[in-house]
Amino acid sequence: MPGSSPYKGPESVADLAEKLLDAVVNISTSQNVEMPGRGIPKLEAPEGSPLKEFFDDLLKEDNGAGERRLQSLGSGFVIDPSGIVITNNHVIADADKITVNFPDGTQLEAELLGTDPKTDLAVLTVKPEAPLTAVQFGDSESLRIGDWVMAIGNPFGLGGSVSVGIVSARGRNINAGPYDNFIQTDAAINRGNSGGPLFDLYGNVVGINTAIISPTGGSIGIGFSIPSKLAVNVIDQLREFGETRRGWLGIRLQAVTDDIADGLGIGKARGAVVMGIVPGGPSDNGLLKVGDVIVSFDGRDIETSRDLPRIVAETPVGKTVPVEILRKSDAADPAQPISVEVTLGRLEDGEKLMETAENSSGSSAKPLGDKDAGMASIDILGMTLSDLDGALREQFSLADDAEGVVITAVQPNSNASEKGIEAGATIREVAQEEVTSAKQVESKIAKLKEDGRKNALLLLASANGDLRFVVVPID
Fold first, then answer.
1. Is 186 a catalytic residue?
2. For substrate, which residues are the binding ones (predicted)?
């Protein structure tokens, strides 16, 4: 046609949205909260005033102390025609009443099947008169940066709102919880979208919208969704048990930096380094040791220390899994690959075990006896070191069974200070070799310097016994 433009806009998603809209719901909640008396006299209009009736109606329930009903709005979606609805935990937290509002105007009161604050997920159930329109989960692992996605929800109370964008990033950590692995999208997500679905263009739920970054409170194109890979496992557990049953390895971890990787002799930085074994936990069998670097768990590569807790949590309780580690047996040799097997416990039981251990710590510690100082303090790498004795245990509130060489002072602006080392910590190892005296520390650092090493890998213990590796430059 003469004068017509040869260019078309993006392909319409109207047909896809039409099929999905009926499965996306609005979640409204209400909560009674106690309102304390405010000490302000009740307002009254003068007798005979034409405003008296208005004031009486306005203030009849506002007499200072009493209850006020708070309300909130969010989104959700149906995954089972029988009436299973998914939303965010923060949408329904502390609610006295939860109502699911459907696109056709139907309102059904919901019961809570289970919640998981750690992933911000909640499962609700309603009793419909007829089967509901439901959607299914897709594979978030197959998403690529740049793929188109669609969000449907209830932004600012405007139900049935559709927005389209792309996957901006994957694996985002926004410090919202221990298993952060968010999909980032520029599809418009605003207040009220929380708990709503993020669809791929096949109509499958690949994410659950849960958070935004915004200085204004509105969408600026940075929204975050819980990936379906993580959500499905949690939702299945909540539906079956009403609670989560996560796998637990029973270790404490530290991130592997480039410097630590160099000090451990494992090549490029990867994996998670073991910094402690929880007594009585699944790994308390002598197979894993402090300093081991876990690079694979149950056949899945561990790229960073953030990956391991999430992968372990997704693994069934009681399963025996292969754990691939790198272990350095000799300071002069590179770390060697080793495979061990660990039978997973349950994280929720482990949390109770660790809480009990923390509450009783110190009550059964056996004194090891005081060590004679034997020599004066040594200044090295910006630290003042002394052999551990009774006086220093008392000065720095160290446990009776604390070991190593105590750091009595750290010079301001030194390399040690910049690495966050503080007085009261103890040095357990230098270059993965145990030390028990300040003289040994001095000797081993001198040997590292003689060998041309630029850094010293120190294993430090805090006053409460927590271990961490620190790499300090050798001047």
1. no
2. 90, 120, 192-194
Co-location of 255 and 351 in the same domain = yes
Task: Note if 258 is an active site residue.
Answer: no
**DSSP secondary structure letter of residue 41:** P
Instruction: Round to whole Å and give the CA distance between 45 and 41.
Output: 13
Domain that holds residue 307: 247-359
Is the model's pLDDT at 231 over the cut of 80? yes
Q: What is the pLDDT of residues 130-173, one digit of tens each?
A: 999 999 999 999 999 999 999 999 998 888 899 999 999 999 98
Residue 413 assigned ligand-binding role: no
Q: Of 27-36, 268-277, 357-366, which range is least confident?
A: 357-366
DSSP string, 250-267: -EEEEE--HHHHHHHT-S
Q: Are residues 352 and 404 in the same domain?
A: no
- Reading the block at residue 337, the tokens are 């690959």
Within this chain, do residues 205 and 290 fall inside the same structural domain, yes or no?
no
- Write down the catalytic residue from 28, 72, 120, 186: 120
Of 75, 161, 168, 194, catalytic: 194
CATH of the domain at 385: 2.30.42.10
Tell me, yes or no, if 451 is annotated catalytic: no
Residue among 317, 314, 312, 316 nearest 294 (CA): 312
Encode pLDDT of 110-136 as tens digits.
Answer: 999 999 999 999 999 999 999 999 999
